[in-house]
Fold each of these.
Amino acid sequence: MEKEEILIIDFGGQYNQLIARRVREKNVFCEVVPHTVSIEKIKEKDPKGIIFTGGPSSIYASDAPKCDERVFELGVPILGICYGMQFMAYTLGGDVKRADKREYGQMEVKLNNKSKLFKGFEDTNICLMSHTDYVDILPEGFKNIASSNTCKIAAMENVEKDFYGVQFHPEVNHTIDGDKIIENFVIDICGCKALWKMDYFTINTIEKLKEKIKDKKALCALSGGVDSSVAAVLLSKAIGNNLTCIFVDHGLLRKNEVEEVEKIFTEKFDVNFVKVDARERFLKKLKGVTSPEKKRKIIGEEFIRVFEEEAKKIGKVDYLVQGTIYPDVIESGLGKSSVIKSHHNVGGLPEHVDFKEIVEPLRDLFKDEVRKVGKEVGLPDYLVNRQPFPGPGLAIRIIGDKKKKKLDILKDADYIFRDEISKSNLDKELSQYFAVLTDTRSVGVMGDERTYDYMVALRAVITDDFMTAKFAQIPYDVLDRVSKRIVNEVEHVNRIVYDITSKPPATIEWE
Ligand code: XMP
């Protein structure tokens, strides 16, 4: 495949991943790199264009993020967004000033639609502004190509050098048709041909894996989630039964999940599939444990132990396969991490497994791209479109002590909820939906009998990034059906509640 890349230089803005998404949506490959990236590294990547992101700093702050100024000498088109525009203006000899107050919100901006950047626009557009500093004097060779009532220079260009800056944020939906500005930049100005398509990626990746691994052996920890399943299938297409997949059944998966994963990987793909029944082992370890953090730690560690034991039986392998995807790379690369919960991803690195190298075939892809590859390689829709499921599984959805009986109650209740959501065609709209078994029991009446049974909570959220989320406004009749079915079909449940908190202040999972 012909090489074609846009490099996104990160100055710390909150929408950086969105910029990358927008570029990828135009079928152009891009990477986000920190502003400290060396000029040699940039040259090595040989990008067709560069985008500077926004960021919270003022260019005059002592710790203001900057990148190597030689980036302006590469002869490559550059688009600076918000802080990125100010950095460009300041570095090239313009002047940046601080306004008395911050400008935030959707503003009407007058655009010079003769500029290549604004091709196809009317002469005004609604754009999202979010800044205090602004460009006051343009650098030499630049022209003002946009303005609003409050911002005199809302965009600038130097057509000779193909340098552009916008004070607003084209990457967010609040800027109407903002993605068209990104398209004008990457396609018309940088000359990208939109080569980044998932079928190319799939064929190319399988070929590369074949070349790299040859007749050596690889090992994959399969969780049944989308990422590890897609990674395993790519490997299986490349090296067939030189791949061994280890699937640890810790008993904390959803109803029918173990059977579904086993069926796919034993019937559809030519791999060595090892299912480890570790249900008793995990339940024993979790006995009496009620602290959410402790549960997470125990499950994470135990998972690695089981995986190591199985791997040892196989002996030395050359490659360990991981389903790392691009958001994982960006987050760890830039040192952002959550301290709210210790997230555990099945497939974390075991220490005592004898392997030479890690293979991460999905490390350049976003989740929806991984799903496209999954479809491409023949994974069934229900697996590819799965909602996220946490590594510690149902353990963090049973409040308090875990007992086999409680697990069975939760699995059945959760299954009914998912079934009704899917029958109501709400599954595409909801980002995540599941049942939680609380440790509250309450009095009810069934027939003429008093009952004293568990309360199940239903949770459904809508979110893009899972960092914040809104509770979903599921129609009452759907909730009614779910509630009736659960109390009728699942023993020991006599009360259902719906969680109407958003994140923050709640988190999505209850533990
Ligand atoms: P919270 O509960 O933190 O969840 O709002 C945000 C998203 O992360 C998922 N989650 C996890 N995923 N290992 C995972 O792989 C974990 O330990 C874990 N804990 C939470 C959660 O399901 C939601 O999608």
Amino acid sequence: MPITLPGLPYEKNALEPHISANTLEFHYGKHHNAYVVNTNKLIEGTDLANKDLEEIIKKTSGDASKAGIFNNAAQVWNHSFYWKCMKPGGGGKPTGSIAKKIDAAFGSYEKFVEEFKNAGATQFGSGWAWLVLKDNKLQVMKTANADTPIAHGIKPLLTVDVWEHAYYLDYQNRRPDYLSTFVDKLINWDFVNSCLG
Ligand code: MN
């Protein structure tokens, strides 16, 4: 079974004015698609060819000789997850069980926001900021380049892509503004709640 590019959960202009259709044309149509194409090329004819995406990621994580496969496969997974973390009219304070868990783990929604944005802003170079469930506790973490919590047995609940290709067309070098907009206007808390279930 080849790895496939999942459809976007909304139209390419649906996140405007916060993330432009132009950004999604490149980010989804070019970058995400290229990770899919590259993964399929690299696993063709190997014992990973008939494995599902999560298995490919887990089997190649930490193996320097398989870094190319890991990087592409993990980026396929991370991007598919990232699109679902956003929705038009999203952002702001969550409701449901994630709201209670955030208060319990961080003290308040505001403290969580501070920690999450700080993780994204301080990830040096390319990578991702995450809200994860680790040892049954909510935590904020960041990963470099393609690295992903699922390679480490940690359950992702929310992510924001802080590679420059995610924000440069709309925000240029203002990564903190992109992060604030992501939190205030885009997070799909319904999806985050569904990940808890
Ligand atoms: Mn990206």
